[in-house]
Amino acid sequence: MKKVLILGVNGFIGHHLSKRILETTDWDVYGMDMQNDRLGDLINHPRMHFFEGDITINKEWVEYHIRKCDVILPLVAIATPATYVQQPLKVFELDFEANLPIVRSAVKYKKHLVFPSTSEVYGMCEDGEFDPAKSNMVYGPINKPRWIYACSKQLMDRVIWGYGMEGLRFTLFRPFNWIGPGLDSIYTPKEGSSRVVTQFLGHIVRGEPINLVDGGAQKRAFTYIDDGIDALMHIIANKDGVANGKIYNIGNPKNNHSVRELANQMLEIARSIPEYAKTANAVKIVETTSGAYYGEGYQDVQNRVPAIDNTMSELGWKPTTTMADALKNIFEAYRQDVEKARHLVDKE
């Protein structure tokens, strides 16, 4: 019976992972976050041990529970492009500096560290598929602070790899645009989900224009949250130590769509559902520049497709949810509470 520590348990990945663990295993979840609104009834589950706190303040609680638990998942991170450009130091302080003591405690107590890297570490790599063992990581100049998130995450990956050379049991996972119900607001630090889907959904339910940055030609490989959690469960179970010292892309190459295609798909679905149809019909698609939308410190990636051969073969996993089903599930999740969706982010 494993004890799993999830820091950022109320976030997008955190609450979905907790639900799956409690429903399908006999493992205990020890979770910390600053809120618990997404946990719902999970908060009262006998194997859910929730603590309201902040990793930058409640350091003794964190270290004690790292010592107590078997698997450590530090999911607290800022993952919003607007913040990279406007507050790069805030991104570095949380995503790297605040997480480094957690990594070192996992080393100290000899725990299995399952750390969220990001698809962004590959930067502007020109490979057709991003390979965790072979692809180069290519970033823009220093005056493009957009890259501080990718750079902070890459540095943490390298530090963890270095500790692995000295005996740390670790697994790095790289989510590729995970989407699904439970999309949260820009004010909640979290890892993994696609901001653009949150943003477009908010615009649709408010009847606002959808802005396509630089025409929306940039593509992303979108991954439904259930598929992502399936892979994470295999990593945490770590049968025969298969995930030790590994880096896994977790994404769905078949769901590779441009942002423009995403906007059109979401509008088509929304217009077919009575609760969304009226506001969806008022939405217009407009084009804007990345400079106008994010600020001059932004650069984008035109294509981001994961190589998942090792993820599938080693973990016995494959993504199965189509893009259409993923988007329909998101709309269904808010269908009975469209008002809640109106409070989703108004800026990616």
From TrEMBL:
The keyword NAD applies. It comes from the Bacteria. Residues 4-251 form the NAD-dependent epimerase/dehydratase domain. This is Nucleoside-diphosphate-sugar epimerase. Keywords: NAD. One of its GO terms (molecular function) is carboxy-lyase activity.
